[in-house]
Specification:
Largest sheet: 3 strands, antiparallel
Shape: globular
Oligomer: single chain
Distance between the termini: 42 Å
Helix content: 25-40%
Length: about 200
Amino acid sequence: MPLAIDRDQQLILAHRENFFGKPTGPSTVSWDYTGQAHQVRRPEDGHPARQWQVGCGVCGKRLEFTVHSVQATRRRQAVRRAWAWAGLAVLVGSVAGCFVIGGDALPFLIAAAVVGAAIGWYVGVAAADQMGVTGHGAGMPIVAKHAVTLVESRPADRPELVCEKCGHQEETPFGSHYRKGWLDKQHQAAKERMDAHTCRGS
């Protein structure tokens, strides 16, 4: 799912703390980031992109990013989704060709399948992360030194679940990159846990 894009957005500019990824599981690593929130206003639709100059709160480096309008950002998301689907189509067609054609065309078809898979995955991730802010690797599936992430506001139909008496809280995920059905189930389960919790303030 594409990210929700608005004219006024809250962005977090984060500084990567570690040079090498820390092992967090089998064949997986993670990086620690420290960031600050910034309020950014996008240019009006049809207007050229705006430059956003900001200082990193950790290293003090002055950075410049390009901020695109809502319309331009959605267009960038659509283009990347089209490329991702094209890569998937090449992958499926090449795999099918391996079984139907085979023979001397097999090496070419295998190479095309690999290229299609790579394009589909990389551009698909880039499409999902596309927030209309570019520069320094922002919006790309890389571990950038300075990362920009979009802070989405919590929707009114999924409020925070906090007990007014004791302060007990149940985590409820939200965000446009999740499936609505999955979010509904998670929120319902959190409400049931909240209703069943033993209140320390009573």
